[in-house]
Structures are given as structure tokens and as C-alpha cells.
Specification:
The complex is a heterodimer of chains A (245) and B (165).
Chain A lengths: L4 H8 L5 H13 L1 H26 L4 H31 L21 H11 L2 E4 L2 E4 L1 H9 L12 E7 L5 E6 L3 E7 L4 E8 L13 H13 L7 H9 L5
Antiparallel strand pairs in A: 1-2, 3-4, 4-5, 5-6
Helix pairs in contact in A: 2-3
Chain B lengths: L2 H23 L2 H17 L10 H23 L17 H9 L1 H9 L2 H12 L4 H8 L3 H18 L5
Classes of the chains: A alpha+beta (245), B mainly alpha (165).
Chain lengths: 245, 165
């Protein structure tokens, strides 16, 4: 039975699955030299951990925690100021980039909690992970491919609020689904979710007012966009070529 | 958005980040600087972190890139004094480093002598406990490259520790 050095390392690192691991185990049991090499691998891991783990046991310098705490304070202030400003502006002028909003649709934004988001997304079966990035799948991907902001599409589970091209030319769409809103941009393989926000009518934090989710997303879209959002014809044309730039 | 959650998770990561920094730099003062720079960068870039992805891998990547930048800067500063083939290893060859090495003990010295790219692979997998796939993503190389660096680093360490490798 032949076990390569790479296989032995992968085994020691817990990278081998059932059948492969069993094969290495059998070989190790039958070959004392191999068993000794495996033991050496494990001693090395222990030595390295013994060398570095104590660093993780040391008390963390106050300065580091203080930097994070300071950023958190700043953000709270900025968010509450931005919310107040958004509210003032909403009363006075509508930004040209903001499309028409159904009056009953004000969604209260929550601060997005990864855990909650994950649960909601997964239950919808519409969001998947690809190389550490969130991508649309299922109904969401289909809706992003086919629905038009200009068509309105009111009443369905998915609303497309606007479509635009960002600076690299990729097509992006601001969407609102039952549990999540966000911005998705099309790359070669699919719709990558650049922003996501969990929706929930009763989850407004003390800093955020109902309605700030849309305005945050539209502001983010405005920042990402190259030029104005697509009009009905441009949107139709982009859809026709599969949202490829 | 999600700043509170982000900050809580980042704070909880600090002990591990300090360990990773020490593993990369093998020097307590460098590690402290690296940690501080990493936290600064992470806080500044926090809007770019995608909810639902692993924060630890994201911050490790920032730290690793920050360190590589630092190593390259040091390499440029001292380029006239070192031999070409020492390349990426040059961050470990200054006088003060040589003094520090005495205090490190066998395993620490052996780790410090590894080329940067092998050391980060070894530390991510054997100390920080990342899977090959995750470690490769943090470094930004294909998994095969990661395992080959890991293998070479490991063999060098085993030899240095007097284990048959």
C-alpha cells in the first residue's frame, strides 16, 4: 500500500474523507515507519501550537479593543445623523435617482445580523455561497434575470427597484424580496449580492427609521452607478443580452 | 450597517489575530504593530465585508496582505545589502531579528527561518486550524499551491527539529 507524503500530511490535517482516510489508517497500522512519520507530523503541530497558543492566552492590549469601541461609537453617531438627514431630505426633495415607491411598502430596516440573515436566506432557497461570496440562486436568480423594474411587477415575491451599470460596466439591480433587499451585480457566472439587508417591519433599531433601507440601498446604488439608472428601453436591451456587459 | 455585530465579532477575534500576527512576524513588537494596522484597515473597510461570510477569514486576509506589504517595503529598503536568492525571506535577516531569534527556541527559530510564503501556509493550517481551501482563499492562491508550500515548510521544520523528513 502506497501512501505519499502529501496524503499523510492531508490525513494529519484532517483533510481526507472516509475512504481515503481509512486507506491511510490501514497503511499506517501496517507500516511502523509510516506510523513514525505520522507521529512526527503530530509532534510538529503540537510544537507549533505550544509555541504560539500562549499569545492567544495573553490579555489583549486595551488599545486594540479601544480602537474598535471608538469606531462603533462613531458609526452610531453617523448612522443616526444620516437617518435624520435622509428623513429631512425625503420631506423636501426626492432625489432623481429614487424611483416611485409604493406608499404601503415602507420596510423597516434592521441592522443586519448575519445569523438571522443566513436563516432567512436559506429558508427562501434563493441565496447560495460561491467562493465566499453570496450569489443569487433559485427564484431570486430567475427574477433578477427576467423581471423588469420598468414593468412594475407589483405583487410578486420579488420587486426590482432599479437597474444600473456600475463603473466596470457590470449590470446591477436593486431588489426587494420577502425577507431580504439588496443589490445584485451580474458577473460571468451569476448574480453576486453586493449588498444585502434583512427586512422586517418590527425590527427598526433606535437609530434607523422605517424606510431607511430603501434609501440606503438607493444611495449605495447611486454611489456604485455609472451615470443614471437604466430606462425602460435600456433595461429591456440589457435583459435581451443576458445582462452581459 | 451591522456595525455593532461587526465590532463584537472583531473584538472576539483579537486573541486569535494576535496569535496569527506573532506567527507571521515572529516578533512581539512587529506583531503588535501589525495587529493595530490590521484593525485600522478592517474598520475602515467594514462596509466591504459581506454579511453571511466568515469575518475571521476576511480579517486574516487583511492581516496577511498588510504583512506582505510590510515585508516588501523592508525588502526594498535593504535590497542593496542582501543576496538576491534570499528574496522574500529578507524580513527575517536583519540584525535585530538575528538577536531575537536566540530567544525564540527551536521551533520558533525554525519557523522564523522559513520563507514568508511557507510560514504563512504552515501557521494558517497547523496553528490557526484553517482547512486547505480556506487557507488558500486567505492567501489568494490555488489550493495546490497552498499544499505545496505547506509541504515544503513542514519538511523544513521537521528537519530543523531533528525529525526525519
Amino acid at each position: 500500500m502506497n501512501v505519499t507524503r502529501e496524503e499523510l500530511m492531508a490525513y494529519a490535517d484532517g483533510e481526507l474523507s472516509g475512504a481515503e482516510a481509512a486507506r491511510v489508517e490501514a497503511a499506517v497500522a501496517a507500516d511502523p515507519a509510516l506510523a513514525e512519520r505520522l507521529a512526527a507530523e503530530r509532534r510538529l503541530r503540537e510544537a507549533l501550537q505550544g509555541h504560539l497558543d500562549p499569545v492567544a492566552e495573553e490579555p489583549v492590549p486595551d488599545a486594540l479593543a479601544a480602537m474598535i469601541a471608538a469606531a462603533r461609537e462613531d458609526d452610531s453617531r453617523i448612522v443616526s445623523m444620516a437617518a435624520a438627514r435622509a428623513e429631512r431630505e425625503a420631506k423636501v426633495v426626492r432625489r432623481p435617482f429614487l424611483p416611485h415607491w409604493g406608499s404601503g411598502l415602507a420596510l423597516a430596516a434592521s441592522l443586519v445580523l448575519g445569523l438571522m440573515l443566513g436563516t432567512q436566506l436559506n429558508s427562501g432557497g434563493s441565496i447560495a455561497e460561491r467562493n465566499g461570496a453570496l450569489v443569487a440562486s433559485g427564484m431570486l436568480a430567475k427574477g433578477l434575470d427576467t423581471q423588469l423594474a420598468s414593468a412594475g411587477d407589483e405583487g410578486g415575491p420579488l420587486r426590482i427597484l432599479t437597474s444600473f451599470q456600475r463603473h466596470d460596466g457590470d449590470y446591477c439591480r436593486v431588489f426587494e424580496a420577502a425577507a431580504t433587499s439588496g443589490i445584485a451585480c451580474k458577473d460571468n457566472a451569476g448574480w453576486v449580492l453586493e449588498r444585502t439587508m434583512a427586512n422586517g417591519r418590527r425590527q427598526a433599531s433606535e437609530y434607523r427609521q422605517a424606510g431607511s433601507a430603501e434609501s440606503d440601498l438607493m444611495t449605495a446604488a447611486q454611489d456604485m452607478a455609472q451615470g443614471a439608472p437604466l430606462d425602460a428601453d435600456q433595461e429591456q436591451a440589457a435583459k435581451a443580452k443576458g445582462w452581459k456587459k | 450597517m451591522g456595525t455593532n455585530r461587526f465590532c463584537e465579532e472583531l473584538t472576539a477575534l483579537l486573541p486569535r489575530l494576535r496569535r496569527f500576527a506573532r506567527g507571521l512576524t515572529h516578533d512581539a513588537a512587529d506583531a503588535d504593530d501589525l495587529c493595530q494596522q490590521t484593525i485600522e484597515r478592517a474598520l475602515k473597510a467594514r462596509q466591504q465585508w459581506q454579511e453571511g461570510t466568515r469575518l475571521d477569514a476576511w480579517v486574516y486576509r487583511i492581516m496577511r496582505n498588510q504583512w506582505i506589504d510590510e515585508v516588501r517595503a523592508r525588502t526594498r529598503r535593504s535590497q542593496t545589502f542582501v543576496h538576491e536568492d534570499e528574496g522574500m525571506n529578507v524580513g527575517t535577516t536583519g540584525d535585530s531579528d538575528a538577536e531575537n531569534l536566540v530567544e525564540l527556541g527551536n521551533i520558533g527559530r525554525a519557523l522564523a527561518r522559513l520563507p514568508e510564503e511557507q510560514r504563512e501556509a504552515v501557521v494558517l493550517v497547523l496553528v490557526e486550524g484553517f482547512a486547505y481551501k480556506e487557507a488558500a482563499e486567505i492567501i489568494g492562491v490555488p489550493q495546490g499551491t497552498l499544499t505545496s508550500r505547506l509541504g515544503r515548510g513542514r519538511e523544513a521544520l521537521l528537519r530543523a527539529l531533528g525529525e526525519a523528513a
